[in-house]
Specification:
By secondary structure, the protein is α+β, with helices and mostly antiparallel strands. Strand 4 and strand 5 form a beta hairpin. The protein is elongated, with a radius of gyration of 33 Å. The chain has 4 domains: 163 residues, Tetratricopeptide repeat domain (Serine Threonine Protein Phosphatase 5, Tetratricopeptide repeat); 271 residues, 6 Propeller (Neuraminidase); 90 residues, Immunoglobulin-like (Sandwich); 122 residues, 60s Ribosomal Protein L30, Chain: A. The longest helix has 22 residues. The strands form 8 sheets. Strands 6, 7, 8, 9 and 10 form a 5-stranded antiparallel beta sheet that branches. Strands 15, 16, 17, 18 and 19 form a 5-stranded antiparallel beta sheet that branches. 25% of the residues lie in helices and 29% in strands.
Length: 658
């Protein structure tokens, strides 16, 4: 399944050569021989053509050369000779023959310009190939062939530019624990970089396909250890293309020709519960189609999935499709990602980076080096659009097939698989996994991550809870999950933004936190959150000194006017008050020590009142809310630094009664 991504290059090239020759000969079949040949010359010519059509290329070349010695002005003879040299991959001789034909009669047949363009391309003279393709486009009346020529011209110009402007690429093998005598591919690095998940194909002598299973290895300092099959996910069948959520608790993979399949290949899922993977389940007919569905990738929270499918509605052959979970945790009907990403060819192997904005995939329909190339696209979170795909460049992409690229959370390291031995650029019989430092322009948004542990504040017992992370600028939820009973979650966060984190657990007061990742210093420096949740015990009276900071309340500078980004926190408090009608709370405002004591007291009280008014405006009874301003009298940090003063400028919620 996944292994089929890596087609042996020589097989593919031979197919292209034969197709090219056949296409050219079909064009020649429709024109008369010119000039007229003598009976002797005609006999040689017909014998040479018959040999060519029966695949006896070398013998046909001998006869065509014999004929051309007798008839040196026979244009069609040179074209036939050139096509036979092309089949033998003798491109230099093919080029000489085609040029001679063009010199004899430049307007003889437009097909000769297409043929010499293919020859120049094979000789890696890409710019010259584009020139000949232009001549074919301007003289041919074959509309279908003209479209192919236009696409080939774009590719030739791209290849010419890409080779002259290579990108940095220094692949390093993953080591003997990962790479074995068998084939390993489809690498995926965990959010924290401590686990590598990949597919291993164990093909013993005599096996036609081999056994594909998903493996996982751990990182020990700088090396990989303990590569082992994912127990519970793997079966006696093949498991290949896969995706795993950021917390490692949800996996989707492709499997083909199973009894319960809806199409040739379907998507299945499994969840990690109680320290083991559940039995894989078909994702159902909402997600799967009656055709081919494979190559999934998941968003960090596992609630968005992009995959490749050949279902009805595709722009080309295989297209990229997307689905998301609704509020009931059910997958919605997938939708096509459109003609910006999808080409008229095949678009496959997507990888959505944990930043949620950068998508890598492979395509043979967008301008590239030839075969399948790797591309990347950025998602505009403000306009909800994908950018035009960018070819990741040469020599990462070659004239062969590339694919299955994934990128580490920090965006600096890319992982891929290849059957190339990069020590001497020879081809291997098996496929190995490599990594390389990804150059700057192709990197995703710098991303860090949060590790959270939810527990009861009194017993320290882990709790299952609902976690939501939201971008405070766009008001969009970036991550949403329900933890297992161990209370653990891990979530990537793109740097350069401000975020709010909310945690809810049944029978507990909500937790809220604010993350400011607008400084580059935070890149890939994880937050560790030990989240202590307070159990709700009816009629509990709290002492006045207990409070929780409302981290996501923001005011205009020096003012009591609430910023729109405060809506997230206001709504959290409103939900809590509506869920617990007996709650009585007090909102307390605090400032730093900049300014007069009286001014700070007035400002802090005005801010507390602004929050109170916002709650009342959302139908919370005023009798359930008290407010007070403390000014700078109760600092929680030193006022000698901006970081300390920022902590002191806070809004607290005190619980008076539950």
């Amino acid at each position: 399944m996944a292994k089929l991504l890596y087609i042996h290059k020589t097989i593919k090239y031979l197919f292209v050569f034969l197709l090219s020759c056949l296409t050219y000969q079909q064009g020649l079949a429709q024109i008369n021989d010119s000039p007229q040949l003598s009976p002797k010359e005609t006999k040689i010519y017909q014998e040479a053509k018959a040999l060519a059509q029966s695949g006896k290329t070398a013998k046909s070349i001998v006869l065509f050369n014999k004929l051309l010695k007798i008839k040196p002005d026979f244009t069609e003879g040179y074209l036939r000779l050139g096509s036979q040299y092309f089949v033998l991959q003798n491109y230099t001789q093919a080029k000489t023959a085609f040029i001679k034909a063009i010199e004899l009669n430049p307007s003889f047949n437009p097909e000769m310009y297409y043929s010499i363009a293919q020859t120049e391309k094979a000789l890696k003279n890409y710019a010259q190939a584009a020139v000949y393709l232009d001549q074919f486009i301007n003289t041919s009346d074959n509309a279908q062939k003209i479209e192919k020529a236009k696409k080939m011209k774009v590719n030739c110009l791209f290849i010419d530019h890409a080779i002259k402007h290579p990108v940095p690429f220094h692949p390093v093998g993953a080591g003997p624990i990962i790479n074995t005598a068998h084939s390993e591919y489809s690498p995926l690095i965990s959010v924290d970089g401590q686990h590598l998940v990949f597919t291993r194909n164990i093909q013993n002598p005599g096996d036609f396909i081999g056994q594909e299973d998903i493996y996982i290895a751990q990182k020990d300092s700088t090396t990989w250890i303990n590569a082992r099959p994912m127990s519970g996910v793997n079966t006696v069948g093949n498991e290949g293309a896969f995706a795993i959520s950021g917390d490692g608790y949800y996996i989707v993979f492709a499997a083909c020709d199973r009894r319960e399949s809806y199409g040739s290949c379907d998507l299945y899922y499994s969840m990690f519960m109680d320290n083991e993977w559940t039995k894989p389940v078909n994702m159902g007919k909402v997600v799967n189609s009656v055709t081919w569905d494979s190559h999934p990738t998941l968003s960090a929270d596992g609630r968005t999935m992009i995959f490749s499918s050949r279902r009805k509605g595709s722009v080309g052959g295989a297209d990229l499709w997307m689905t998301q979970k609704d509020e009931k945790n059910s997958w919605m009907t997938p939708w096509n990602l459109g003609s910006v990403l999808n080409s008229t060819g095949d678009d496959e192997s997507p990888f959505l980076h944990p930043d949620g904005q950068t998508l890598y995939f492979r395509s043979d329909g967008h301008p590239g080096m030839g075969g399948f190339d790797i591309f990347y696209s950025r998602f505009d979170t403000y306009n909800n659009t994908w950018s035009t795909p960018i070819n990741i460049g040469f020599p990462i992409n070659t004239e062969g097939d590339e694919g299955s690229l994934s990128v580490s959370s920090d965006g600096k390291t890319a992982w891929f698989a290849s059957n190339t031995n990069y020590n001497d650029n020879t081809l291997l019989k098996n496929i190995n996994i490599y990594s390389f430092e990804l150059y700057e322009n192709a990197r995703p948004v710098p991303t860090t991550y949060v590790k959270g542990y939810i527990q009861d504040i009194n017993t320290q017992k882990p709790l299952a809870g609902d976690v939501e992370l939201m971008d405070l600028i766009t008001n969009k939820t970036l991550f949403k999950t329900t933890t297992a009973n161990d209370g653990f979650f891990i979530a990537p966060l793109p740097s350069g933004q401000q975020y709010a984190c909310k945690v809810n657990a049944s029978g507990y007061i909500f937790f809220s936190q604010h993350f400011d990742l607008q400084k580059e210093d935070f890149t890939f420096q994880p937050y560790i959150l030990n989240i202590d949740l307070i159990p709700v015990v009816k009629d509990t009276i709290f002492s006045d000194n207990y409070s929780m900071v409302l981290h996501n309340i923001f005011f205009e500078t020096g003012s009591s006017v609430l910023q729109p980004t405060s809506d997230f926190e206001i709504n959290n408090v409103v939900k809590m008050m509506l869920d617990h009608p007996s709650f009585v709370i007090k909102i307390v405002g605090h400032t730093d020590n900049i300014g007069s004591e009286k001014g700070n007291l007035i400002l802090s009280e005005a801010r507390a009142k602004a929050v109170t008014d916002a709650l009342i405006n959302k139908n919370i009874n005023a009798n359930r809310i008290l407010y007070e301003g403390k000014g700078a009298t109760e600092p929680i940090a030193e006022n000698t630094s901006e970081a300390g003063r920022q902590q002191n400028r806070r809004t607290e919620l005190k619980f008076v009664k539950l």
